[in-house]
Amino acid sequence: MKILLSILCIIVSLGALQYSHATSGISITSPVMVDTVGKPLNDFHVGQQIGVESTLTNNGSSEQKFAYMVQVLDNSGATEHFESFSASMLSQQSFTASQVWIPKNPGHYTVQVFVWDSLSSGIPLTDVLQKQITINP
Length: 137
What we know:
With 137 residues, the protein is mostly beta strands. Helices cover 12% and strands 47% of the residues.
């Protein structure tokens, strides 16, 4: 029984390593925080609408389905906000994706953006990119 559990742990570990570094035709730019009209923000406040924006490009040779995800972590690493949408891109297509976050509390946050093939399978198509921001009262 111990041997079976050890083998299972190795298989799970190898599976995690397989998906630890994304390799696909999709690329994503680092997140930019923007206001409601798309102007970059440098100062952030509680209750403010903050657009988390990245440009996605399908560098592959065929259409690619994907889910664009934005996750905001508080100072302790807990998820404060998570939002996503799914779509598809034709080969060589680019577009700017954005999700809005309205912070409820002041503090230091980590904003992460990443792309999976879908929400249900969770196979990464890009690495996780992140930006640290501070929300003021």
